[in-house]
Amino acid sequence: MHALIVVAHHDPDSLTHRVAATIAEHVSSYESQHTCEIADLAKEGFDPRFTASDRDTYHRVAPVAPDIVAQQQRIDNADALVLVFPVYWWSMPALLKGWIDRVFCNGWAFDFGVENPESSKLRDLRVHLVALGASGAEAYARHGYDQAMNTQIEHGIFGYCGAQIVSSRLLGESESGTAGAHLLTAAEIGRSLFEPSQPSL
Question: How many structural domains are present in the chain?
Answer without folding.
Answer: 1
